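User: I'm putting together a small comparison set for a docking exercise, and I want a reference complex before I start. The sequence is below, and the ligand is pyridoxal-5'-phosphate. Could you produce the 3D structure with the ligand included, as structure tokens?
Assistant: Of course. I'll restate your input first, then give the structure tokens for the complex.
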Amino acid sequence: MSRTFPPLREELRGIEPYGAPQLSLEQAPVQLNVNENPYGPSPEAAADIARAVGEAAVSLNRYPDREFVELRDALTAYLNTSGGTGITPDMVWAANGSNEVMLQLLQAFGGPGRVALSFAPTYSMYPEYARDTSTQWVVGHRAEDFSLDLDAARAMVLERKPSVVLLPSPNNPTGTALPPEAVAMLCEAAASYEPGGIVVVDEAYGEFRRAGTPSALEMLGAHRNLVVTRTMSKAFALAGARLGYLAADPAICDAIRVVRLPYHLSAVTQATALAALRHAPELLGRVDDLRVERDATVVWLREQGLEVADSDANFVLFGRFADRHATWQGLVDQGVLIRETGPDGWLRVSIGTAEEMAAFRQALTHVTKEQA
Ligand SMILES: *Cc1c(COP(=O)(O)O)cnc(C)c1O
């Protein structure tokens, strides 16, 4: 037998799979680490989803609708009520989570000899999509307050000529949203060389944005190379169903069809997402509560003398801690699991229910006193 087994690609050897540390509910009853919506579907919504899945089950001997026509129509209607105007079904594409959508974008538009660009701190999965598609990963940096220096960002795009620019807005892990000028400027820059690049604005947290923060969906008509991705995992409280989607020029959606696996969206997934979309007002009904809780968390953390990034998302990045791991561990010991992520010294807490946030505040007060 060869000494290297399994005969893995060189660049994958010794790499740990991505994933936040998972603890059981007994170890940490308050779980505020992966930006889930703490409010599950109501019994009525759950029953409707179960009924829809039951109906789909009768014909599971058949492959699902490869083009998920009905789901595309429903997602289109939703997007036109959620910041978009004039979006048509041929501008919408969906897959198993927006993670799969973005991997498909890299498969279609990245690849050997091509560059994917983002600005750190940014979503930790992006470099993995780049690696998995043999796309060169190039990362610029955000300013001290996590905003984007527009001139520097534009210069970097013009110099590196990326095929794909990845911009989470609101950003994970900082929570900060990009101004429309930034999106417009980078779309124009990425359209100014041959063959040009696409600009992906990842709005996984789009529904949580504060009043006055626009969605990049509004700009689709103005920029052919703009792609806006969304997910049902966060505001829609449907992380377990795995449904992400995008809106873009029809030619971009068409290109993805070349790389997608056959029948990638199962009949069960399509039925689940369709039923969930019928309950959209209810599933999204807690978003306002979570935004209020988020804003209160920002205020409280600042009152504790901590630095806090402005947040348009359902989580808050705060710091700085001389030993953030000790603070994280101290919170775990109090039964509160948050996320050790972002620049050194910072921690990220997802917004939970009012009770969970009270437990977080109490635990952090305790840990800070103990470590003082
Ligand atoms: C959570 C998250 C997603 C969504 O992932 P899904 O695969 O749709 O669950 C996408 N982008 C960012 C930045 C996220 O934080």
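The chain is about 35% helix and 15% strand. The mean pLDDT is 96.
User: Thanks, that's exactly what I needed.
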